[in-house]
Design brief:
This protein is of the alpha+beta class and 295 residues long. The protein is built from four helices and twelve strands; from the N terminus they run βαββαββββββββαβα. Strand 2 and strand 3 form a beta hairpin.
């Protein structure tokens, strides 16, 4: 069967259970709302036909990689890429009514294949009362509908005037197992963050520009070694055009990292990207990004 074909595999194919595919245990229940379908199990040797990577809405998913020893389940995708693109989805209800809705993101590789789908899980009161400073949980889902990464941001302060209660983010992969943290580091002029492992040991540093302004250009946050002497990667907020930047909070990001970087640290870098988005680029009445200057 040609790759990308919409032809359905007969229910009587060898090794395939009869009837409609059932949802696998542990599958994220909201998966069907995100435009993809779970893949049927039961093929010999764990083989899954490529056609099953094509959701009903035409989105092309990255092929499922083989399992890797000592790799958190679902992070095998990250072993095969050194760049990812994060595209926030446009929410028409938010544009029309002005009410903040849960953010949703597509996470893709450089070929345009979807690697993950991320969805914010925050109640309406918190979203609209706390704005971009809100605490949140973001659930990151793979193409089987499994929640593979969970991001938790508590309610904290982001101003350099309050260094004792700065921003932090916990990254779990799989949910319930902490693999790292993103900790805001106090600095009078620059937005700085520390990436830590599950034991809160410093692993990487993130340093942004003094003026965080995305007007007609990308904004780059450099990822460096702990001593800040060696460049490791980059988190870039990409300029998306005047209309989209001014009238929506839909943002695009690019993340680059070494191919051989620990997948846990790659997952934490993804978490750092979401924290940076909320801190500097999520529009709202209380958003300090309105001034364009790190406070």
């Amino acid at each position: 069967m040609p790759y990308g074909s919409t032809q359905q595999v007969p229910a009587t194919a060898p090794g395939m259970p009869y009837g409609f595919p059932q949802q696998a245990p542990g599958t994220y229940q909201g998966a069907v709302n995100y435009g993809f379908q779970g893949q049927p199990m039961g093929f010999p040797g764990g083989f899954v036909p490529p056609v099953q990577n094509q959701p009903m809405n035409g989105t092309i998913w990255m092929p499922i990689p083989p399992s890797i020893p000592n790799c958190p389940p679902g992070l095998e995708y990250l072993t095969q890429i050194d760049q990812i693109l994060i595209h926030q989805q446009l929410e028409l209800l938010e544009i029309v009514t002005g009410f903040e809705t849960n953010n949703k993101y597509e996470i893709k590789n450089t070929l345009g294949q979807r690697v993950y789908f991320a969805a914010e899980d925050t109640d309406c009161l918190t979203r609209n009362f706390c704005g971009s400073s809100r605490p949140f949980t973001i659930r990151i889902i793979d193409n089987l509908g499994h929640e593979v990464i969970t991001l938790h941001r508590p309610l904290r302060c982001s101003s350099c005037c309050f260094p004792c209660c700065l921003q932090e983010l916990e990254v779990q992969a799989p949910p319930g197992t902490t693999v790292g943290y993103v900790i805001q580091t106090w600095h009078a002029c620059l937005p700085k963050f520390t990436i830590q492992d599950e034991n809160k040991r410093d692993m990487l540093k993130i340093i942004g520009p003094c003026v965080v302004c995305s007007c007609f250009q990308d904004v780059n946050f450099e990822v460096k070694s702990v001593d800040e002497t060696c460049a490791v990667g980059r988190i870039s907020k990409q300029w998306t055009g005047f209309v989209q930047e001014m009238f929506t909070d839909t943002d695009n990001f690019g993340i680059s990292f070494p191919m051989d970087l620990d997948v846990k640290m790659k997952a934490v870098m993804i978490g750092a990207c979401f924290l940076i988005d909320f801190m500097f680029f999520e529009h709202g009445s209380d958003n300090q990004q309105q001034s364009g200057v790190w406070q």
